[in-house]
C-alpha cells in the first residue's frame, strides 16, 4: 500500500523535473522523500480500505497533504522559526542547502500540493478538496496555529488546545474529510469524517506532549504539561480515545479494520 503510494509520488515529482533547476529539484526530493512515517497518507489509505474505496483514488489527496506537511517542516526548521539543524536524524533543508533554498522549497511544495489536486480531481470534488485544504493549511488551520505558537507568550490550557487543533489536528481533519469527499458521501457524513480526523490529530498531539515529558530539560518550548498535571493529561488522552472510538462506531468503521490498526499504533506509543 505505502510502496504504491511512494511510486505514485515519485512519478508526480518527475513531472516537475524537466523545467526545474537540478540542484533545487534534488533539494525538494531530499525533504519530501526523507524517512518520514507517512502517517497522514496511511490514515487516508486505511480509511479508504475500510469503506471499499479504491486506494489509488486517494493517492493524489494523500500526496497533497504530505506536501503541505513537508513544507511546514522545512519552514519550521528555519532560523527565524524553530532554528533546527536536524530533522529525523539528517540535516534539515536549510542546514544542507541554505536558507533561501528552504524558503523556496517550502513555497514549491505548498503550491505543488494544489497542482496535484487540480490534475487528478475534477468538478465538485476538486472544489471541495481545494477549499478544505486551503482552510486546514491556512490561517484557519496550520498557519494560524503556528502564529499562536510563535506569538503567544502567556498560555493556559485553552490556548494550548487551540494551538494543537490548528497546528496539528486540522491537517488530520483534511485527511479523513477528503476520503469521504472522494467517496461522494453526503454532507453529514463528511462532517463526521472530518471530526474523526480532527479528534485523532488532537489525540496525537496530546500524546506527543506526554511523551515529551522526559525531554523537558532539552525542550526550548513549553507544552501543555506546564499548565496541567501528568495525571490530568492522561485523563484527557483517555477521554479523547473514548470519543474517537465512539465516533468510529457511529461511522461503522470496523473495529478490526485497517483504520483501527493505524489508531492502535498511536495508542501503543509508550508514555
Can you walk me through this structure?
The protein is 72% helix and 1% strand. The longest helix is centred in the middle third of the chain and has 26 residues, at 157-182. It has helices at residues 2-17, 22-32, 39-50, 55-76, 93-97, 99-120, 123-137, 142-151, 157-182, 187-211, 230-250, 258-267, and strands spanning 86-87, 90-91. The model has no long low-confidence stretch (mean pLDDT 93). A two-stranded antiparallel sheet has the order 1-2. Helix 1 (2-17) packs across helix 4 (55-76). It starts with a helix and ends with a helix.
Structure keywords:
single chain, 271 residues, mainly alpha, Farnesyl Diphosphate Synthase, two-stranded antiparallel ribbon, 12 helices
Number of H- or I-type helical stretches? 12
Summarize the main sheet: 2 strands, antiparallel
Q: What name goes with the CATH superfamily?
A: Farnesyl Diphosphate Synthase
Class by SSE composition: mainly alpha
The percent range for strand residues is under 5%
Q: From the 3D coordinates, which CATH architecture would you assign?
A: Orthogonal Bundle
pLDDT under 50 segments (min length 5)?
A: none
CA-atom Rg in angstroms? 18 Å
**Total E-strand runs:** 2
The average pLDDT is: 93
Task: State the name of the first-level CATH class.
Answer: Mainly Alpha
Order of helix and strand elements from N to C terminus: HHHHEEHHHHHHHH
The main sheet orders its strands as 1-2
Query: What best-fitting shape do the alpha-carbon axes yield?
Result: globular
Q: Predict the CATH topology.
A: Farnesyl Diphosphate Synthase
- The helix content, as a percent range, equals over 70%
Instruction: Please give the alpha-carbon distance between the first and last residues.
Output: 29 Å
Number of domains: 1
Amino acid at each position: 500500500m505505502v510502496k504504491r503510494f511512494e511510486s505514485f509520488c515519485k512519478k508526480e515529482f518527475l513531472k516537475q523535473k524537466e523545467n526545474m533547476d537540478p540542484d533545487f529539484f534534488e533539494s525538494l526530493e531530499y525533504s519530501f522523500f526523507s524517512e518520514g512515517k507517512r502517517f497522514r497518507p496511511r490514515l487516508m489509505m486505511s480509511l479508504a480500505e475500510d469503506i471499499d474505496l479504491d486506494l489509488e483514488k486517494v493517492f493524489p489527496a494523500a500526496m497533497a497533504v504530505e506536501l503541505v506537511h513537508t513544507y511546514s517542516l522545512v519552514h519550521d526548521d528555519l532560523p527565524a522559526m524553530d532554528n533546527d539543524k536536524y530533522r529525523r536524524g539528517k540535516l534539515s533543508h536549510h542546514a544542507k542547502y541554505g536558507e533561501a533554498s528552504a524558503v523556496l522549497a517550502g513555497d514549491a511544495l505548498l503550491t505543488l500540493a494544489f497542482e496535484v489536486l487540480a490534475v487528478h480531481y475534477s468538478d465538485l470534488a476538486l472544489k471541495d478538496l481545494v477549499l478544505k485544504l486551503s482552510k486546514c493549511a491556512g490561517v484557519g488551520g496550520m498557519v494560524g496555529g503556528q502564529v499562536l505558537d510563535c506569538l503567544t507568550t502567556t498560555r493556559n490550557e485553552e490556548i494550548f488546545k487551540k494551538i494543537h487543533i490548528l497546528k496539528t489536528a486540522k491537517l488530520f481533519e483534511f485527511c479523513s474529510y477528503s476520503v469521504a469527499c472522494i467517496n461522494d458521501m453526503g454532507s453529514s457524513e463528511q462532517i463526521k469524517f472530518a471530526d474523526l480526523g480532527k479528534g485523532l490529530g488532537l489525540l496525537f498531539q496530546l500524546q506527543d506532549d506526554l511523551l515529551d515529558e522526559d525531554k523537558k530539560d532539552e525542550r526550548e518550548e513549553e507544552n501543555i504539561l506546564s499548565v496541567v498535571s501528568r495525571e490530568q493529561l492522561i485523563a484527557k488522552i483517555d477521554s479523547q480515545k473514548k470519543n474517537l472510538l465512539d465516533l468510529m462506531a457511529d461511522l461503522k468503521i470496523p473495529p478490526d479494520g485497517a483504520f483501527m490498526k493505524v489508531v492502535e499504533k498511536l495508542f501503543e506509543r509508550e508514555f
